[in-house]
Each structure stands twice: as structure tokens, then as C-alpha cells.
Amino acid sequence: MQICILNGSPRKHGNTAELSKPFVEALTDGGAQVTLHPLAEMDIASCKGCYHCQDVPGEYGCFQQDDMHAVAASIISSDIVVLLTPIYTWFCTAELKAVLDRFFGLAKFYRSAEGNLLEGKRIAILATHGYDAAYAADPFVIGIQRMCEHYHMRYEGMFSVRDTDDIASFQTKQAIGGAREFARYLLREKV
Ligand SMILES: Cc1cc2nc3c(=O)[nH]c(=O)nc-3n(C[C@H](O)[C@H](O)[C@H](O)COP(=O)(O)O)c2cc1C
Question: Which domains does the chain possess?
């Protein structure tokens, strides 16, 4: 199984990176091939809303020549896309939001091109946040569920941990065990 992780945290050694360690470990232990994209270290512009991609069939098709093309290729070859992000202002970070907007070029619904390169892809969220999970992350979860409906992707759920004590919050038995269990859940074949 191929898994593409889109890491939206700007902090290389921050809370979200810490939570991702046992998660990635459990995925690789389970035989998955994992590609992790550190979005904050990549050159990915925002969507310009030009709709050029909607006239380019069979490929990503964005006119902007930046690192999103490598991310798009990774998404296309993956079974599961994981959105790894701290909650910033009730949503994902700007780095990840830019990528989500540019998913547009993978699904052709609006102009001459046809074909949805996101069809049937599974998507999951691994998140950290300061407030309790529902209050902090519900708006983001709802946004992603709506995106999945629109692009015909399968939403697989979220595992998240609250930042109550900086990095130590993500080193507890519960946080590590939960991240591992979520990884094992994703690896179970779904019919
Ligand atoms: C700019 C900014 C905005 C934030 N907004 C929220 C928020 O809306 N809700 C929340 O629960 N936590 C919020 N937080 C807290 C972070 O989500 C939390 O500390 C997270 O674990 C940070 O992860 P990181 O170390 O990977 O950046 C915010 C933090 C920052 C720096």
C-alpha cells in the first residue's frame, strides 16, 4: 500500500512532527510505502483560480511549475492521502490549504477536460490542536468531508491529540498508542 503524507506543520521538530513518528513507524512496520512531503520546506504557490487545469485531460495540468507537481504525482500513485497538520485558526495550516486548493487540478469537473484523478482515493487526518478535539477540529473535519463528497474521495477519519504540555503531550502512551492504532486501522483492507 502506498501512502502519501502531506505535512502542513511549519515546525520541523514540533508537536505534529512528534505525533507523526509512531504513526509512520506503524505504517512502515505494516508493510506500507510511505512518502512524507514537508510542505513548509517546499515551493508550493496558492491556486490562482485560472481554471487552466480544467482544460488539461489525464494529468495534473496546473500551469504553475512548482513542487505541487511532485506532490500531485505522489497523490496519483498513492492509495491513501494523510493530511498531517496542526489546527491553525480552526483549519489546517496555510501550507496545507494551498495544496488542498490545488487538488482542483486533479479533478476535471468544470471545462473541456474529463476524468477525476482523485476518484476513490482514501483520505485521513492526523492532527494536533490546543483546544479539545471537537471544538478545535470540527470545522476542518467538515471541510474535508465536504471536499471528499465533491471529489469522490473516501474519508477515513481523524486521530488527533491535544497540546496540553507542548511536546510531552505527544509522547504519552495514549498519544503514541493511538497514532499506531490509527495507522493499523488504515492498513486494514477495505471492501
Ligand atoms: C498561529 C496558530 C494558530 C493556532 N490556532 C489554533 C486553533 O484555532 N485551535 C486550536 O485548538 N489550536 C490552535 N493552535 C495551537 C496548535 O494547533 C497546537 O499548539 C499544535 O500542537 C502546534 O503544532 P506544531 O508544533 O506542529 O505547530 C494554534 C497555534 C498557532 C501557532
Answer: 2-187 (3.40.50.360)
